[in-house]
Amino acid sequence: MDCRVIITVGVQALGNVDAVLRQVQLFDAFTTDNDPYGEHDFGSITLEGTTCFWKIDYYDLDLHMHSPDPSDQTVTARVLTIMLAEEY
Fold first, then answer.
1. What are the percentages of helix, strand and coil residues in the chain, rounded to 5?
2. pTM for the structure as a whole
3. What are the phi and psi torsion angles at 60 (to 5°)?
4. How far is CA 73 from the centre of its chain?
5. Across 46-70, average pLDDT
6. How many domains, the chain?
């Protein structure tokens, strides 16, 4: 699955972006409380006491509107945003 990745200035300022990316890649703590629809498109991680959120959004290929069908890669551009909790 192709995906654009946006990392906010706050996360970049942590100085260890590779560790943040690795935690996002390994995240599997989905529950009915934090993922009620089973989409696995949002999570929260902690790195050295700092909480970061990550979110996957599904846009049309021009990145102007939501995708008409997020499950169809031919009409969907996925964007992963990683941000500090306070930037949400």
1. 20, 35, 45
2. 0.90
3. -70, 170
4. 17
5. 95
6. 1
Extract the tokens encoding 38: 């089973």
Cα 82 to Cα 11: distance, rounded to the nearest angstrom: 7
Amino acid at 45: I
Query: Over 70: is that where the pLDDT of 1 sits?
Result: no
Instruction: Give me the domain span that covers residue 37.
Output: 4-87
Are β-strands 4-7 and 50-59 bridged in parallel, bridged antiparallel, or unpaired? unpaired
- Pick the closest to residue 82 from 2, 1, 10 (CA basis): 10
Mean pLDDT of the chain: 94
CA distances to 39, 50, 65 from 70, rounded to whole Å, are 11, 31, 12
pLDDT at position 88, please?
87
